[in-house]
């Protein structure tokens, strides 16, 4: 290829394709931008880690709900401290979350109407958590419920189970 | 070459190098903006008005703050949701939307779309030119009717009557203005000259207002 | 009396010390009045002259000024309230009670802060609608309109983060519901909520995070954007004056 004029610096001898040639300025620009980009990504990652707490002081998610005999058959008992309904039906026990699946308000058991109602956006559920009406996207989840060796009910709020699974005592 | 001349890369000779005097974009005329009218010195004319605004506002606020106490409810209790649990008033419209649509649509999708719509307003020529919606009556009437019908049907499907009502009202005004577009001077005639952006914003404000009022009082 | 005060002020303005501070003598000529604007750090972003029409109340209802004045009131009362506030649960609530019953003028300052906050949201909304209906978003004001929309969002965020700080039932549940909306976002919602709250529930960490956002980060952002917003009003040629304003109806 014949010698041509340098695209950025006229007078500087220059050979090659003016389009594909990388000048020193281009090269340094790219290196600098690349370094800045890597540093920026690194800072974002470090900040993200910093903002995610590793230890949380939040209430325990497993709790004992007392002796099964405390709950009469055909009853819905609201355990306010745990935000859980312990429901006892003839077929057995189940634990239903009291936190509305819509936006996290705590629901209330209405014995007169035989349903669970949310005060925030008007969702209504049956005692087994299925939705009657309202904006809630899902039924209230059922939590894993078991009996401890000393005969107490044990509810694990991190473990969701299918509504069909009922604890028989 | 003169010895004092400094090479700048730009010619400073206007006769040789043309300079941009006015930028004539496609479709816009190069009409010079009319006489801006008389001007006043910022100091004191603007500053005195700002000072008066400041004083009036502070006086009124102090008087109200003396006699109207900010509410303070019980200590926060994660175990007990008050009934009804309400957001601040400017979010009550949003809270009303949550009755009708799932949280993703009402809480994320609609607000995001509204913000995007607000941001892009000045970047669309149709908004900048501001041509009357009935400048092309036959064609636009068809578009308007289809849009209004689809919108109202959609809202009815979701039983969103508090949105349906203001939408229907604004649509009715819009259609009234169509019938009055060629008439004599009158309030509907004024409406007939409004552009599309005016109608969309008015619709948006009507819906927001209705939802906020319903959320506040019901 | 008035004339004595007047002449005393006149006298003061001719002093060396006055001139050393303000870089000018009395502002009694157009030249010194111009100097009063562009020679002053706090005013230099204003034009030296303004159109008479843009000063009329109907041109703007001074809504931009009103929003800014409310911001200043919030800034001052907010800093004062910070002297008696601990961003910790449930201490924050006790501080609210203290402000109400123990601290001199505490309840007055809290009332003023809250009132100004609500008014500012209202004023900013109205400002936006008014600018829209006057066509104030049209070129060359496009970018300033966008800055304004962002400022509206910052105002709402400022108000919302402040809403949690009293740590009462109202605050707690408004924020619980609000942050649960975020977790409805697909894929990243739960992660964002976790970062915002510093946990899975609205608790101590959430209160501290909202506090830092409310008193440091968002006010800084707002201040910066307000600066750009004001500066661009002048750079883009002042307020939009409608041709309709010519017909002498005003």
Characterization of this structure:
The complex is a heterotrimer of chains A (169), B (218) and C (250). With 169 residues, chain A is α+β, with helices and mostly antiparallel strands. Chain A has two domains: 3-51; 62-161, Rieske Iron-sulfur Protein (3-layer Sandwich), CATH 2.102.10. Chain A has one helix spanning 24-51, and strands spanning 3-5, 13-15, 62-66, 75-79, 84-89, 92-97, 108-110, 115-117, 124-125, 131-133, 142-147, 153-161. Chain A has a six-stranded antiparallel beta sheet with strand order 3-12-11-6-5-4, with no helix packed on it. Chain A has a four-stranded antiparallel beta sheet with strand order 7-8-9-10, with no helix packed on it. The longest helix of chain A has 28 residues, at 24-51. Chain A starts with a strand and ends in an 8-residue tail after the last strand. The model of chain A has no long low-confidence stretch (mean pLDDT 84). Chain B has a domain at 89-217. Chain B has helices spanning 42-67, 92-100, 103-120, 125-129, 137-157, 161-179, 187-192, 196-217, and one strand at residues 39-41. The longest helix of chain B has 26 residues, at 42-67. Chain B is flat and about 65 Å long. Chain B starts with 38 loop residues before the first strand and ends with a helix. Chain C has 250 residues and is mainly α. Chain C contains twelve helices and one strand. Chain C has helices spanning 2-13, 16-22, 30-38, 52-55, 57-60, 63-82, 91-101, 106-133, 142-164, 169-182, 189-197, 204-235; one strand at 49-51. In chain C, helix 7 (91-101) crosses helix 8 and helix 10 runs antiparallel to helix 11 (189-197). The two termini of chain C are 37 Å apart. The model of chain C is unreliable at 246-250 (pLDDT under 50). At the A-B interface, loops of A face helix 2 of B. Strand 1 of chain B pairs antiparallel with strand 1 (49-51) of chain C, so a sheet runs across the interface.
